[in-house]
Amino acid sequence: MFPQFFDKPFRLQLSFNKIIEGLEDAAETGNGWRAMNAQALLEQVNKHPELRDGLESEEQVSENEELIAELLADLFPTALSLNEIKAVSIPYQGLIFNHSQRFKNILKDAGPDFQINIRDFSEQQLYVLSCCIILNQLYGTKLDFSKPMFYDIPSADGVMRHYRILYNADFIEILPTALSVKLTQADTGELMDNFENTALWRKKLPPGSYLIKGFGLMTLVDVTVENALSNLKSSLLSNASSPDIKDSLLSIFRSIYCIPDLRMGFTLFDRNEEKFLNVRFGPDFHSFLLPVQKAFDTEKILCDKSFNCLVHEHTYFAVSNVPCYVDENPEDNFGKHFLAQGIQSFILAPVIKDGVLLGILELVSPRVSELNSVTANKLDIVMPFLVDAVDRKINELLNRVRSVIQSYYTTLHPSVYWKFRREAQNYIEQTNNGLAYTLKEIKFNEVYPLYGQVDISESSITRNLSVRNDLGNQMARLLMILKEINKANDKPHVGKIQFDLKTFSDELQHNIRADTEQFIQHYLEDKVHPVLTEAATKSIYKAKIDQYFEQADNLKGDFHANRRNYEKTLSLINQKLATILDHRQAEIQEIFPHYYERFKTDGVEHNIYIGQTIAPDREFTIKDLHRLRLWQLRVIAEMEIEQYDLKSLLPYALSVTSLILVFSTPIAIRFRMDEKHFDVDGAYNIRYEVIKKRIDKAHINGSNERITKPGKITIIYSQEEEEVEYMNYLSILQKEGILADDMEHFEVEELQGVAGLKALRIGVIHHDQNLLAQRAASYNKLYEQIN
Fold first, then answer.
1. 306, 311, 303: which is closest to 331 by C-alpha?
2. Is 596 exposed, middle or buried (0-12, 13-18, 19+ CB in 10 A)?
3. How far is CA 23 from the centre of its chain?
4. 55: which of 60, 164, 358, 607 fits an S-S bond (Cβ 3.0–4.6 Å)?
């Protein structure tokens, strides 16, 4: 017997009634050989009424094989049998017969064990799509379920060929049975919005409730090449960075859905914070889901059903009639938000990569029913492209985040990245071949070092002053409160606390040690605050104690105001200085690549190394070093000038001192894996590091005056040639109106292990009518004057 598909909404009756009716019409109205042929064929058919009434078994098909072939002769021309891939079939079912010769050859090449199945079609999909045929023919719906269907069939040489399936259902009649249920317009609308609800489809269109009478024609088209092109497009899309991605995707979606004004949006999902983000993602994707450009918790922006579909089940969520949805869910703002944007139907599709939700694709239409849960499944053909594109864009976003982190928190510089990359490639290549490999040291020989710093003057004194003022105010307030508490109820331990606080106040006026602030803070938390908390239970003290704790708050309280102003001052100065240095660095790197690292302390200091080994593909000359030294002197002068202008805007009007160390002997640097930064290499080169660490607080030889001074740049050197070189640089900047004519020459005091250092010190001009013009002057003009 034919399989009756008891898990489908219909029973099958294979019949050639429509073909026979066509023959009868030809016999009555036609003439010539066609009418005669039709009459002769009808005489044979009349002997086999089962061909009209319905065949019930495969045995009957075999018995009437020749006659069936004659009936279908016009549909299966002999001349095309080796060209067309055609057979008789029922749509979406496994019953196939009367194959063309080419179809037979393809199945023969696939082997006797091959089972032909539609690619990526589940039983649930087959049931619902079968129901859609019934709805379209009997209830006038226009459900476009034409999702491409494919057979994957191996050829004789083992190559997998891909065939697209085309169905012709002109010879099928659909008739209701006694089990059928009459559907209303509301029923069909409910089905449109519940593609995944198989139970609902089975309820409305029960198994066996309709009879499919007739037969279908199935034609296969070899799309192996197109399938390969599709994979190629996916690869290209995953690597594309063109702004045309959005327009390309929108064009694809409009073609798929035949909606010329369909719009597309995207909402990014941050899985770390479990929030949706409305950001200008990739090629400027707009978000219809989020009302404003900020982050929202997933459960706040989605209704319960959409949240479950998109976030938990990773399935599509569609609404075919937004006004109706709003009427049915009056307390839900989810639908109202879409309606306010002129959206009448929409599909939300989760973008999933390796089981992780990346974001939500949004397709919206200004008309009802154009987008629904049935048509949502057409997205299956394009989602692989979109997933790769979104994943790439997210990685680009993460790389930008890493770039910001690298700019502010780490010092691995692009100028030396090539050597790390090369060593990493060696490591990967060797380990992939199963060989043991130890990473080699990253080292650069024969490089010239440059060191400079712009240090905030008297930062420690200002810090101590802010601590003294804040803690003094805090303890004065505490003594007043404790005096009232102790007066009302004399307690020995409160008196002891009062004595300690007075002692601390006296010590603050004379001396502040490194641990004074921390010691007093711990004392207040351990000894004083418990007493206040206990006293606050009485109403007479509560207001004053609450006010005290409000003022003791680290972020907003008055007892930390001076320290906050100090930290703000340091932060603003450091940010200003670092911004200037980094900006100018980007310019000088273009002239000759060099390693650069910057540190923020109480000011900004930097290390620079330049030499042939850092840029082996460029020719290094001593002029490149000279140009970099002039740049360093000029940019430190610029930092000094800009900080002077900033001073009037700061909570504390702090000045800066500037210093440059000249070292003309090439050294070697090595990357320290344990500390993740470059350091000098070799015993002789250690002298350079020793000088760097000890000159900061050095004095002029024979005096108590520091070598650094606010408003001036100090240049430390040891050789006469270095003095001549820098005198030339200073002369250039003096002519430009940047440096003053107050040159000082002196020797630096002998330091531990370091002797014979000399210094030049010169002032920076802060108030000059031509200053603004000088600041904007090109650095390149200065370089031209070196020789």
1. 303
2. buried
3. 65
4. 60
Continuous H helices in 410-455: 414-432
CA distance linking residue 756 with residue 705, whole number of Å: 18
Given a contact cutoff of 8 angstroms between Cβ atoms, the answer to whether 747 and 734 are in contact is: no
Convert the pLDDT of each residue in 357-406 to its tens digit. 888 889 999 999 999 999 898 888 778 777 877 777 777 766 655 554 44
Q: Do both 295 and 284 map to the same domain?
A: yes
For 616, other C-beta atoms within 10 Å of its C-beta total: 12
What pTM did the predictor assign? Answer: 0.52
CB count within 10 Å of CB 212 equals 26
| 440 within a domain of the structure (yes/no) | no
> Do residues 7 and 208 touch, judged by C-beta distance below 8 A?
no
Q: How does residue 769 score in pLDDT terms, banded at 50, 70 and 90?
A: very low
DSSP alpha helix (H) spans, 511-621: 516-523, 529-535, 539-551, 561-589
Domain boundary, last residue among 562, 588, 622: 562
Q: Domain check: are 582 and 704 in the same one?
A: yes
E strand segments, 372-529? 443-456
Residue tagged 């000359």 (tokens): 621
State which H helix or E strand residue 46 sits in.
none
Domain boundary among 381, 399, 417: 399
- Say how far apart CA 107 and CA 675 lie, in whole Å: 66
The domain total for the chain is 4
Tokens of 759: 């210094």
Q: What are phi and psi of 706, to 5 degrees?
A: -65, 150
Q: Which domain holds residue 376?
A: 242-399
Among residues 659, 753, 755, 763, the alpha carbon closest in space to that of 707 is found at 659
CB–CB of 741/764 below 8 Å?
no
Largest CA distance in the chain: 133
Number of Cβ within 10 Å of residue 168's Cβ equals 15
Amino acid at 412: L
Query: If you search the block for the tokens 């504390």, which residue do you land on?
Result: 652
Confidence band, pLDDT 50/70/90 cuts, at residue 536 = confident
Sign of CA dihedral 555, 556, 558, 562: positive
Q: Report yes or no on 259 lying in a domain.
A: yes
Contacts of 118 (CB under 8 A, 6+ apart): 92, 149, 150, 151, 165
Question: Tokens 């930092």 identify what position?
Answer: 639
Query: Helix/strand/coil (H, E, C) string of 124-174?
Result: HHHHHHHHHHHHHHHCCCCCCCCCCCEEEEECCCCCEEEEEEEEECCCEEE
Decide if 115 is inside a domain.
yes
**Look-up of token digits 């979406």:** 92
